[in-house]
Design a protein that fits this description.
Blueprint lengths: L1 H13 L8 H15 L11 H8 L3 H13 L3 E4 L3 E4 L23 E2 L12 H14 L14 H15 L8 E4 L1 H15 L4 E6 L3 H9 L3 E8 L2 E2 L1 H7 L3 E4 L13 H13 L3 E5 L23 E6 L11 E4 L2 H14 L5 H12 L2 H27 L4 E3 L6 E5 L6 H11 L1 E2 L1 E2 L13 E5 L5 H19 L1
Parallel strand pairs: 3-14, 5-6, 5-8, 8-9, 9-10
Antiparallel strand pairs: 1-2, 4-11, 6-7, 10-11, 12-13, 13-16, 15-16
Helix pairs in contact: 2-4, 3-4, 4-14, 5-12, 6-12, 7-8, 7-11, 13-15, 14-15
Family: In the C-terminal section; belongs to the class-I pyridoxal-phosphate-dependent aminotransferase family.
Protein name: GntR family transcriptional regulator/MocR family aminotransferase
Keywords: Aminotransferase, DNA-binding, Pyridoxal phosphate, Transcription, Transcription regulation, Transferase
Length: 470
């Protein structure tokens, strides 16, 4: 088995492009991909850390950290005295490896992964009330096959809401209700592919699941650096791409805001190059010390496709998103959605329309903003008290904080060590498309934990860090 694995590992590593990151990260990615694809079957005994380090040409500690990370994610299991084995059940092929999959039995004392709001704050009573009122008001005819664009009442409410809250310029007929933001991005990628695009620019760092959607729909993702002012528009021009995905209001994951100068430069690039900007406005409702900047779409509706979702405000399980795009992309996306699923759930659309119209959404956001701000403050204060060398970066917004670690820290190895201690955080380097992150960091979510739990998590992180660096 070991001889077979040694040969297989060389083949796996050869699939990784030489410029695609450090050797240690390439080894981790190769192992993960091979397990998920089934090339390494469940129950397979993996090489010892010493043997694998020799094969991969990395330090043994790097392999140990990779094994810890894969263990934390549920891909492998360690049997004392026997070795490391591929788990009997692993995430299926085709799902995104961005973050550890949810475990029915919590594997971490403190789960600080990103992307999940405080699910316990979901307004169950208000939503149920809205659902009852919406269903009572729906005529029988509305229960037939739906309008592919989405329930007209919801499109009208959303157009008004987005115009009021985000400065989006859209009439109700220009709004397409989607199955979450993921479907909106997939529909746009397919439309771009139909137009002849083969490459699309993405921010670096960015959400890896975004890249998976783009590549899964036939587009090569080209990374463009992000700094404290947002995406580097000069590098974007030099890339030759004629489409880009940006998180301009609150860059994911760095948390910076696209500067006014970069906003104007980006819009100028789109106009000059006849290009499309896809604006992923994933969490603009969550601002704690300043108003959110207006959406880019309102400045150039013919050049910007606006994508939004309730996954960060209400719950991902609702699978409600929307797309407001230039007319030619709207028509193309609508045709594809008609072929794909003929629209969404009329009852869910009617419920959300009622929830918006009656002020339930505004009241929910007002309440959760206060809670999230207190939780963010508690996290930042605890870091200052227990880990003063760790510096939070980005604006006070969203559901997460990027923590800048001391220079020279291996953030991937540290995240693996934290996972072993029971704290689930994500290394900033895992969001990078190029070789190195702008700085070593951890991406830490605070939304789903109370202030007391966040303080306890930081205490455990500090003790784990001190032990690692002693």
């Amino acid at each position: 088995m070991a001889e077979h694995w040694h040969a297989a590992l060389e083949l796996l590593l050869s699939d990784e492009a030489p410029g695609d990151g450090r050797r240690g990260r390439r080894t981790e990615r190769a192992l993960r991909a091979a397990i998920r694809s089934g090339r390494i079957p469940p129950g397979t005994r993996l090489p010892s850390s010493r043997d694998l380090a020799g094969q991969a040409g990395v330090a043994r500690g790097t392999v140990t950290a990779a094994y810890r990370q894969l263990t934390a994610e549920g891909y492998v299991r360690t049997r004392p005295g026997s070795g490391t084995f591929v788990a009997a059940a692993v995430p299926p092929a085709g799902t995104t490896p961005t973050e550890p999959p949810p475990d029915p039995a919590p594997a971490f004392a403190f789960d600080l992964r990103t992307g999940i709001p405080a699910l316990s704050e979901f307004p169950r009573a208000a939503w149920s009330s809205a659902a009852k009122r919406a269903l009572t008001a729906l005529p029988d005819s509305a229960l037939a096959y739906p309008d592919t664009s989405g329930l007209p009442a919801l499109r009208s409410e959303l157009a008004a809401y987005l115009g009021r809250v985000r400065g989006v310029a859209a009439a109700s007929e220009g709004v397409l209700i989607t199955h979450g933001a993921a479907e909106a991005l997939a529909l746009l990628a397919q439309s771009l592919r139909d137009e002849g695009h083969r490459r699309i620019a993405v921010e670096d760092p960015c959400y890896p699941g975004q890249v998976d959607i783009l590549s899964g729909n036939g587009l090569e993702a080209v990374p463009i650096p992000v700094d404290e002012s947002g995406i580097d528009v000069g590098a974007l021009r030099r890339s030759g791409c004629r489409a880009v995905v940006v998180t301009s209001a609150h860059q994911y994951p760095l948390g910076v805001v696209l500067s006014p100068e970069r906003r104007h430069a980006l819009l100028d690039w789109a106009a000059r190059d006849d290009a499309l900007i896809i604006e992923d406005d994933y969490d603009a409702e969550h601002r704690y010390d300043r108003p959110a900047v207006a959406a880019l779409q309102g400045l150039a509706p013919d050049r910007v496709a606006y994508v939004g979702t309730v996954s960060k405000t209400l719950a991902p399980a609702l699978r409600l998103g929307w797309l407001v795009g230039p007319s030619r992309y709207h028509r193309s996306a609508l045709r594809r959605k008609e072929l794909l699923n003929r629209g969404g759930s009329v009852i869910d659309h009617a419920t959300f329309a009622t929830f918006l119209r009656d002020g339930g959404h505004d009241r929910h956001l007002s309440r959760t903003r206060r809670k999230y701000r207190r939780r963010r403050d508690a996290l930042v204060e605890a870091l200052a008290a227990h880990l003063p060398g760790w510096r939070p970066t980005g604006v006070a917004a969203g559901l997460h904080v990027v923590v800048r670690l001391p220079p020279g820290t291996d953030d991937s190895a540290l995240a693996a060590r934290m996972a072993g201690a029971g704290v689930n955080v994500i290394a900033l380097s895992r969001y990078m498309r190029t070789a190195a992150a702008p700085f070593p960091g951890l991406v830490v979510s605070y939304a789903a934990n109370t202030p007391d739990r966040l303080r306890a998590a930081v205490d455990l992180m500090a003790r784990t860090y001190r032990t690692a660096t002693a």
